[in-house]
Each structure stands twice: as C-alpha cells, then as structure tokens.
Design goal:
Shape: globular
Number of helices: 6
Bound molecules: 5-O-phosphono-beta-D-ribofuranosylamine
Helix content: 25-40%
Strand content: 15-25%
CATH architecture of one domain: 3-Layer(aba) Sandwich
Order of helices and strands: EHEHEHEHEHEEH
CATH class of one domain: Alpha Beta
CATH superfamily of one domain: Formyl transferase, N-terminal domain
Radius of gyration: 16 Å
Number of strands: 7
CATH topology of one domain: Rossmann fold
Length: 180
C-alpha cells in the first residue's frame, strides 16, 4: 500500500491514481496543498503535518510516519513534497521512500532546478526517480528519462514537458517497487 507526500498541485499524485496504484493515504506539510483535494475527492485518507504544530522536524516526521503506518503504508512516494525528511521518518520505511525530481540528477538538485537549468543553458534535461536519503535529492537513482530544452522554452513550458515524463516514469517505478 502506498502513501504519498505532497506540497503543491499534485499532478504526479494524479498520475499514480490514474495508473490504478493502491494509494491509501496522502499527507502534506501544507494544509492548503491542492493535491490534498484530489485525494479527498476520491475518499482517500488525507492529513496535514505543518512544521509549526510540532516542537521540531523529527517530532513532525514521527507523527507523519505513525499516521502512514496506521493506514498500512509500505511504500512512500514524495510527489512534489518540498521539505527534507529526517531519519525519524526514513528509518521507518527503509529503501521504500522515492522522490521524483525535474532534472537529470545528480545535476541540478534543489527546489529551483527548472529555472537553474534554463539559466545554465543546458541542451537537455529530464526527470529522475530516486530513493530518498537525508540529503537534497541525493539518494540512489532508480530511473531517468531525457528531454531536449528548446530555444524558446520558459520555466513553465519546460517544466510542463518534464512533468509529462514524470507522469510516465513515476507510476512505472512505484509499481515495480510495490511488486518486489
Ligand atoms: C514535480 O516537477 C516534481 O519533480 C518536483 O515537484 C513537482 C511537483 O509537481 N519534485 P506536482 O505537484 O506533482 O504537480
């Protein structure tokens, strides 16, 4: 069973749902994340874990891991989740937390990867799905796919093309992880 962590729009969450994967719980660090609505419309359990409601990050991560475990989650997917996870969370789901990122990691980790790749003038970029560790987009890579950067790309057009890849790649890799 899959738990998904989100902070934003949730188009990758939607791709997992459209693929028919067994998503049973969706959690966010932001109460107002649009992605939570996509899940609650489908009667999937949702909860927000805002940092300000806890003494520190480890306490928040423990509460979030407890909640996911209560829902039977074995594989956790970060689908646009914008906080780092501490060992208080990661140790609870060993080798079973994956992230999707809009660059060819290890190039361009971090929250502004699309803008930074355009500014650097790279000829190609892509999407990466990787196992999560405590670093910034730094765990072992599971899958990658490339896409060309066009002369007239803006951050929006480029990110949209990368997301098309993400929406294929992420469900495939998550499906494989669930089947192991
Ligand atoms: C995706 O580009 C993902 O790679 C990055 O955040 C974005 C999330 O988009 N980590 P969405 O919320 O799934 O639409």
């Amino acid at each position: 069973m899959i738990g998904v962590l989100v902070s934003g729009a949730g188009t990758n969450l939607q791709a997992l749902l459209d693929a028919g994967l067994p998503v049973v719980a969706v959690a966010s660090n932001r109460r107002d994340a649009k992605a939570l609505e996509r899940a609650s419309h489908l009667a999937i359990a949702t909860e927000s874990f805002e940092l300000g409601d806890y003494a520190d990050r480890a306490e928040r991560d423990t509460a979030m891991a407890d909640w996911l475990e209560r829902h039977g989650v074995r594989v956790v997917v970060l689908a646009g989740y914008m906080h780092l996870l501490t060992s208080a969370f990661l140790d609870r789901f060993p080798d079973a937390v994956v992230n999707v990122h809009p660059s060819l990691l290890p190039e361009f980790p971090g929250a502004h990867a699309v803008e930074e790749q355009l500014a650097a003038g790279v000829a190609e970029t892509g999407a990466t799905v990787h196992l999560v560790d405590e670093g910034v987009d730094s765990g072992p890579i599971l899958a990658q796919e490339r896409v060309a950067v066009l002369d007239d790309d803006t951050p929006e057009t480029l990110h949209a093309r990368i997301k098309e890849i993400e929406h294929r790649l992420l469900p495939r890799v998550v499906g494989e992880l669930c089947a192991r």
